[in-house]
Design goal:
The protein is α+β, with helices and mostly antiparallel strands. It is built from 15 helices and 46 strands. The chain has a 12-stranded mixed β-sheet with strand order 28-25-24-37-32-38-39-46-45-44-41-42, sandwiched between helices. The radius of gyration is 28 Å and the shape is globular. It starts with 34 loop residues before the first helix and ends with a helix.
């Protein structure tokens, strides 16, 4: 349960100077939102979008946060977690695995500005570029044109101590706006490594600021432009987005250009990355990534006043945290909706429309059913008022709670469990539900203490669908309040291919994905994005049909492509990534087939005397954020005593804050680079396109089928609505491959589990023997990654050569915990062994098929990948 709300004590920390009052911001009128009203209302908006959601969440501001976080316990004198470690995760982190990769991006792709009281960027490196403290920051600020001294602004501090506000210890610079830019400030960071970094900017606000301050972010994929409404949001970090940067090729530029000359723009600091916690408590910082910390520390670092940061007057960080999240919303809003007891505080004037707190709950069921979803709201303010400061009744928070809970339960019953439990719709005086002066709901999605619920919570498919339900509930609530239409953004497209045409151009084709529970989610346009080499993604091009023709890359260069579906509600997540490359020798290309789609929860077992998480670690979708360590208490009868002795499900905390890499859906380019190094051009297609026959294998002399950790995976739960997903080689694919090989084709097949999966399918053993020349020995042929030469007859590596694949869970490359052991059958000969067991790792069939029991993309080095691919091509006569 959440601690109930209490009245705030007056804080002792000194606040930054508030901005001056300004005219009210326009509301979104009924009907289709007016573009000008949306633009003037939005805190941040892109200036070069290819599509704008007219029936989504454009111009809306959504405050959302993921439960608790690490806090400083004054009584213990140490940094502590607020909840117990259970089933390999902890509630302080688990909701972030919904909010950060899924919910927040969904809301943004619908056009909303998303605001969070906890650090959102998991990038632990950080470069703050600030002219006030240039020697202490990582980067350079350059100024040209006419700027003048402003007022109090951000002043960088590597450590933020008690009663310090970083946004009250520096200064900003001002320039008068003009139709044609005459003044410019550029921030150039010193980044330690290439990677993904969030960009957040600081400035000061005033009524005469530009509503369209022009920022340009130069990143690895090009330059993205944004307009920031500087009449609001000054005195904190304002997020522009996340971008891929390479060291020495990153910068942010602000000019004085504006559609309204004669106003002012403010230039202060720019931050790249999320960084490590910098707020000192008890004489030390947490030593953890900032995104793991409670909101109490991020809001101080982000410049919020003590009425927000320390409602308990710095006497109890635990209470400050759960009370401060709601007061942070009020700090964003400002007068007359300021923090409790300080309603007239000007605040940041950000027109927050709605707030949502996402939690998981403690609770058990005795019959292996789902504990389910609870929604909490409150119809009275902290002063007992039944209306919000803007005059609306607080009962509309009940409408929000009902809408979101109903959408969650409806979708999860349709997609996962027809008996998903709908818990209370509860009107209760909880801080996170009662304090915000906007419609607010606290969602307890499921019980982290109940193993049945955790079957769902740890599954990436469920996380996506649950987050999508929350996004839809928020969207439908806001549309109902403003009497506007709401359209759900599409799902990602599938069945992709990227092939050369007769003229040498790249033709990309795909198919939209129907949403089984949302007819409105159909796309009507598409954005095709490209990437050269290992750079970043460009802004893309908009097309009306599921096909696009692109210029071919230069010889030796890899061109990657992905597709985003678009409709009036917004954009889908990007599709999987395909790629093409030309070797320049004129030979026909190799077709790379992307067959690694699987994302999955870790293996859960249940016996009479033991249950929990053990065995296969699953496959994260991109990166797993919530894993904290292995489960130690497997006894279902073990009871909760306290957070240090939580009973059944108790888990180690030795992996906290170390993201675990999974399926990036971006391995074609990895194979492609190895093929180019071996002198072969390549094109690519998804496995669905091959299975359905839209891509003809017979046009290609050789096929490289990458299967990664693909294998049949049941949907989560005891009563799944849908069948298993991710069969490695379905019957249709086996038939296509058999026909292709019979007509003279050549096949390179790699992956960790495909042989085990095929052997379990009807007719699978015969396919392995007769078509591939393989017999499957075991599914755990290797738990270490070393490979060595096989037999003299079929060796794929030179005698004594050693290569290795990754078996260690880490942030950069997915781990192969176990790989299939295979041996020759029929016309097959052994080509590779696992070095530590001697079991077969690679089989060659008559120069027509090379089968590998491990994934090529999981090999530890580019040199190893090139060596194995070149050897396989040689064995195939290619």
């Amino acid at each position: 349960a959440r601690a109930p709300a209490r009245a705030a004590a007056r804080p002792a920390v000194r606040a930054a100077a508030p901005p001056r009052a300004a005219a009210p911001l326009p509301e979104i009128a009924p009907g289709v939102p007016d573009a000008a009203a949306v633009a003037s209302r939005a805190l941040v908006r892109p200036l070069d979008p290819l599509a704008t959601p007219t029936r989504g969440l454009a111009g809306r501001h959504v405050a959302v946060w993921a439960s608790h976080g690490l806090y400083y316990d004054l009584s213990r004198g140490s940094w502590e977690w607020q909840r117990a470690p259970l089933f390999t995760t902890i509630e302080d982190i688990l909701p972030a695995a919904f909010v950060l990769p899924y919910l927040a991006p969904m809301l943004e792709r619908a056009g909303a500005v998303v605001l969070t009281p906890r650090e959102r960027d998991t990038q632990t490196d950080e470069a703050v570029v600030d002219a006030d403290a240039a020697p202490a920051t990582r980067g350079l600020t350059e100024e040209s044109g006419t700027w003048r001294a402003g007022g109090r602004g951000y002043g960088h501090r590597s450590v933020v101590r008690d009663q310090q506000n970083p946004f009250a210890s520096g200064t900003d610079r001002l320039a008068e706006t003009a139709l044609v830019p005459t003044a410019q400030t550029t921030w150039t960071p010193t980044l330690r490594a290439a990677g993904e970094y969030a960009v957040t900017v600081a400035y000061t606000s005033a009524p005469d600021r530009a509503t369209d301050a022009r920022y340009a972010v130069t990143h690895a994929g090009g330059t993205s432009h944004f307009a920031v409404n500087q009449t609001m949001g000054g005195g904190t970090w304002v997020r522009l987005g996340t971008f891929r940067f390479a060291p020495g090729r990153a910068r942010v530029t602000l000019t004085n250009e504006s559609a309204t000359p004669g106003r002012t723009v403010s230039a202060d600091a720019v931050r790249f990355g999320g960084g490590m916690g910098s707020v000192e408590r008890g004489g030390a910082t947490s030593g953890r990534p900032r995104w793991l910390e409670a909101g109490r520390y991020y809001t101080q670092f982000a410049g919020f006043p003590p009425e927000v940061v320390a409602p308990e007057d710095d006497r109890d960080d635990y209470k400050d945290d759960y009370k401060g999240r709601g007061e942070w919303v009020n700090g964003l809003l400002g007068a007359p909706a300021g923090p409790t007891g300080h309603a007239e505080m000007p605040g940041l004037r950000v027109p927050v429309d709605v707030a949502l707190a996402l939690h998981t709950d403690a609770g058990l069921t005795a019959d292996s059913t789902v504990f389910g979803t609870l929604a909490i709201y409150h119809t009275r303010g902290m002063d007992g008022a039944t209306t919000f400061p803007d005059g609306r009744p607080r009962t509309i928070s009940r409408d929000l709670a009902a809408r979101v809970q109903d959408q969650i339960v409806t979708d999860l019953r349709a997609l996962y469990d027809p008996l998903w439990t709908r818990r209370d719709l509860r009107n209760r005086n909880y801080s996170e539900a009662a304090r915000p002066n906007v419609p607010t709901v606290l969602i307890e999605l499921l019980a982290h203490q109940n193993l049945t619920d955790m079957r769902f919570a740890l599954d990436p498919r469920f996380r996506f669908d649950a987050s999508r339900a929350i996004y839809k509930g928020i969207g439908r609530f806001l549309a109902g309040q403003s009497r506007t239409a709401f359209v759900v953004q599409p799902l990602a497209v599938r069945h992709l291919s990227a092939l050369f045409d007769a003229a040498g151009h790249v033709v990309v084709r795909w198919q939209p994905e129907a949403d089984p529970v949302e007819p409105s989610a159909a796309p009507d346009r598409y954005i095709v994005q490209t990437r050269l080499g290992e750079g970043g993604w460009d802004g893309g091009r908009l097309v009306d049909v599921p096909e696009a023709t692109l210029a071919a890359p230069a010889p030796g260069e890899v061109l990657s492509v992905r597709v985003v579906a678009v409709n009036a509600g917004g954009e889908s997540a990007p599709s999987e990534v395909l790629a093409v490359g030309r070797a320049g020798d004129g030979r026909p290309p190799v077709l790379v087939v992307a067959g690694f789609d699987r994302v999955a929860a870790p293996e859960i077992f249940q016996t009479a005397g033991a249950s929990g998480i053990r065995g296969d670690a699953g496959v994260p979708d991109g990166v797993e954020l919530s894993f904290i360590g292995s489960q130690t208490d497997l006894d279902p009868a073990s009871i909760y005593v306290d957070d240090d002795r939580p009973g059944h499900g108790a888990s180690r905390l030795d992996a906290v804050g170390r993201p675990v890499a999974g399926n990036t859906h971006d391995f074609v380019a990895v194979h492609g680079r190895a093929l180019l190094a071996a002198g072969r051009s390549f094109v690519s297609a998804s496995d669905e396109a091959v299975e359905e026959g839209t891509v003809d294998l017979g046009l290609y002399p050789a096929v490289d089928l990458l299967l990664g950790e693909e294998r049949t995976t049941p949907a989560p739960g005891w009563r799944p609505v849908r069948g298993p997903d991710f069969e490695a080689l379905p019957a249709a694919m086996r038939a296509r491959l058999a026909a292709y090989l019979a007509s003279g084709g050549r096949l390179l097949l790699s992956g960790a589990h495909w042989a085990t999966d095929v052997a379990a399918a009807p007719g699978g053993t015969a396919f392995l023997r007769d078509i591939l020349g393989v017999r499957r020995l075991s599914g755990d042929g290797a738990t270490a990654g070393g490979l060595s030469d096989g037999t003299v007859e079929g060796a794929l590596l030179a005698p004594g050569a050693r290569v290795a694949f990754n078996t260690v869970r880490g942030p950069d490359l997915y781990a192969v915990e176990a790989a299939d052991a295979i041996e020759p059958a029929g016309q097959g000969v052994l080509g590779l062994r696992y070095a530590h067991t001697g079991a077969g790792a690679g089989v060659i069939r008559h120069g027509r098929v090379v089968s590998l029991g491990f994934p090529i993309e999981a090999l530890l080095s580019e040199t190893d990948r090139v060596a194995v691919v070149a050897a396989a091509l040689s064995a195939l006569g290619e």
